[in-house]
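Lay summary. Proteins are chains of building blocks that fold into shapes, and those shapes determine what they do. In this project we predict the shape from the chain. Here is one chain we studied, written as its sequence of building blocks.
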Amino acid sequence: MLQVIKGNVSNIKPRNLLFLIFLAALILRLGYVIYLPQVPITTDAIDYDNLASQIADGKGFSHPDGSLTAHRPPLYPFTLAFFYYSFGHNYLIIRIFQAIIGAFCCILIYVITKQLIDHKIALRASVLSVLHPALIFYSGLILTETISGFLVLTALYFLVTALRKDALIFYILFGIFLGLLVLCRQEMLLLVVIFPLLLALAYRYKKKIGLYSLIAAIAAVLVIFPWTMRNHFRFKSVVPVATGTGSTFWKDSHPARFLEWDNLSEYEPVKSLVKDLDLNKAESHIFLDKALFKEGLRNVSQHPFIYMRLCAEHLGRFLIGSYSSAFYMTRDSFAGVISKKEFGVLAVKILLLIISLFLLALAGVGMFVSRAKLKTLLPVLLPIFYVAGIHTIFFGEVRYQVPIMPLILIFSAAGINILNPARIISQFMKFYECELKGSKKYHVIKSIAKSWEPALMLSNKRIYNRKMNLPFKFIGFMLSRECQANCIFCPVPYKKDLSGKERFMPMRVVKKVVDELAGHEFSGSINFGENGDALLNPDFKNIIEYTRERLPLAKLVLYTNMMNVDRDVSEFLIKHNLSKLTLNIDGASEETYRHSKPGLNFNKVKVNLHDFISARNKAGSSCQVCIEILSPKRYMNLRKNKKINAPYDSPQVIQYWKDFLSAYDCIDEIIWFYSWNNQAKEKRRISCPSGILGEAFFDKMFISTEGDVYICCLDYNTRLTYGNVLKNSIYDLWKSEKRRQIMDDIINKRFKKIGQPCLYCSEKFDYLACYLDFIKHRYF
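And here is the predicted shape, written in a compact code that computers can read:
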């Protein structure tokens, strides 16, 4: 289903896509709560129901006997009371409300994930949340899980937006919803301190992050404070939200393991404590709760190893479960189902357990592969590990996963990427990088790389069949064929024939393409900077202005050497909502940098980038800055076999710039090894990786300075073209038979028929070989 959705939503407008996600989630949840039988309310649900009934009847936050209480957090009972007062004591209304906010959560997941990672993973995460059994089942239960999950996502949405825009109002809104979350689930109370503190430390490069984090914490406290004062005035004791923490801690740290709530009074010290207490009064419960918390600490100090074992059991119960008890048909335990010989129900419970464990395992993989973006993903990771930690210390149950389940699904969606064969090997190589320094292992893995060819070709064909007819999502404009950098790895010095080629793309070509895209309300990416430096085009500013005016939803990307991006240009780009700036910084010092880019001034590039980042931060722009590093050490023998004495200083580049970049920026070393000096020597025999790694052919269109449309960004002389935008519609060209034939020849490795540039293409020859080369030049 994920592939079907992925194939059909490519050209759907973001607003329409969000509506479809919401509609699908709503239909599933409403169908479930309206037409299927629901689990009867018990235990916690009875408490919430009784409190809500008392509030709706005007009797305050009290038990059915009229005694005031602080036993439960107030938000959920008051929410129920609102509906009871408005519509009568009707569980169906509550379930419909929870179905609606549960469906809205799927939109929030998409929006948050898209801001933090990308559209593809956001779409996967939202689809997983639409279909996840637990998120559907719990919309029918009179419990806090659904509404607290909504509050978690809403708070994170405002936090992620605040970090991106540096706007105080979003920090305040984050604090407000964090406070509401605490009033819904009291175990979240410590987040009011932990979240702002970690934000101030992790994002300390932001000028006002400390102040804004403090204001967010104050906003949360102000939301919680009125209820805390209510408890203080009513019960003459400090109860921030609700009681229950002490008794829960004592019960779940007791050496007797997993005591039942119904018989706690049979154990000491409860048995002695309750003798002189009137348990009909809230004050007695508050006293008992505080006393049992101290007893819980005593349990831990006296039996530390038993408590460690209990914590492991708590964590296991928190992580492993099928959620089937929340579904009426499968509500019995595994033992109960087996004893009744209901094998059909047993099969459903096992299937739900497998789904749960599989998604959890994918989430673990997703966290591992996303470790480079730790700072960016901190807002999502913190609630996951906090809740897991709390329910390791206290009682753990799979039900407590539900409020953070949408966040777990974000990493499950990221983990799906690992199912790509090339990515599996890639991550394997990265993980065992240090182990690959030995020559024996190096050659073993190299032989594996050569044997991977059948899998690459098979995957290319699968992608070709699935994506060939999809619309493009990326336009690459070659605004210039000129660049002053003279990079050591650049193919420009090897170009022989540029006759008949335009130096710069004329405005008429840009207008023709942009006008067509505007007619289709294009919202994909437009890249300025294929091959040459776009800023050398004399019409550069006019092109940017016209494109932004006609395509307000498009993502404008600039790939530049940064030499010409002075302060004035930076402000111009920020003003016109540049979405992404990509550049190479291939050295930490002027000495290293000039080996890679002898035509540029290292200090000027450095100053220009600082000015751009400063202008972006001052304007509150969400423009992403991506720095790529290609160490010149890897090219020491590239030109005329003259060895360069270039140090390997890529880690120093990363160390310097990471302090100036935001959580949404990226900086990394490029693994690919481009060896254009081999083009005249070695014919290509293995599958082109542009399909398998990034699927570049299938959603990207590249346009040369003359308006010719070419297949691949690595075709620097634009020899493999399938039409001209001045003569035909870009949409007709995209669907043309000539493009289809070229694609078919590439996928089936008919490189001799294609000729240049594919016949002697040695760029990105294959991923594993490139990575091994990267390791060799890094360590030897």
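What the prediction tells us: The mean pLDDT is 82.
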